[in-house]
Amino acid sequence: MTDAYLTDSEIGPVYDIDSAALRKCRRKTLKAMSRAERDAYASAIETAVLAAQRAALRRAGNPLPSPNCASGTAHNTGEAIHKAVRAQHRAALLAYPSQERRARTPQKWREMYDAAMAEKRGRKAEPAPQAVVIGRRARSQAYLQAARARLAEAGAA
C-alpha cells in the first residue's frame, strides 16, 4: 500500500498568509463562530490568498494579462467600452490637480504666492459701501409709497 500522505506539490502551493482580518477571525474556533463570522473568515482567507498570488506573480516578472482593447478592460459591447473609457477619462481629470500640485517645487509655490500678493497690493483699495441710515418716519413713508405703487399697478392691470 502507498503512503497516505500527500506532498506539497500534489496538494498545491502552501500559503503562509497573514492579515489583520485573519488574525481577528482566528481568535475563535470554527465551531464557536456564527454563520456570518465563518463567511467573513472565508472571504478574508480568499482576499489574503489572492493578494499573495498577485504578489508572487509580480515578483516573477510576468505582467498581469490585459485584454487587447482600447479601454484596457474586458468589456465587449460598445456601450460598456464607452463607459469604461469615460470612467478612465474622468479619473484622469480628477487626478490632474493633485498631480499638478505635487509637481510644484517649494520655489514655485513661493513665486506664485509673491505674485498673488503683489497683485493684491497693486489693486486700488475700493471704499466700502456706506450703509444708508434712515429714520422711522422716512422708512414708513417709503413703505407707503411702495404700497401705493403696487395698488396702482394692480388697478391698471
Topology:
Elements: H1 8-11, H2 20-25, H3 35-60, H4 78-103, H5 106-122, H6 136-156
Q: What does this protein structure show overall?
A:
With 157 residues, the chain is an all-alpha fold. The chain has helices at 8-11, 20-25, 35-60, 78-103, 106-122, 136-156. The chain is elongated, with a radius of gyration of 36 Å.
Low-pLDDT residue intervals, each spanning 5 or more residues: none
| Average pLDDT rating | 79
Structural class: mainly alpha
Order of helices and strands: HHHHHH
| Dominant shape | elongated
Alpha plus pi helix count: 6
Specify Rg, calculated over alpha carbons.
36 Å
> How far from one another are the termini?
111 Å
Main beta sheet: strand number and arrangement? none
Please report which band the strand proportion falls in: under 5%, 5-15%, 15-25%, 25-35%, 35-45% or over 45%: under 5%
Helix content: 55-70%
What's the total count of β strands?
0
List keywords for this structure.
single chain, 157 residues, mainly alpha, 6 helices, elongated
Summarize the structure.
This protein has 157 residues and is mostly helical. It has six helices and no strands.
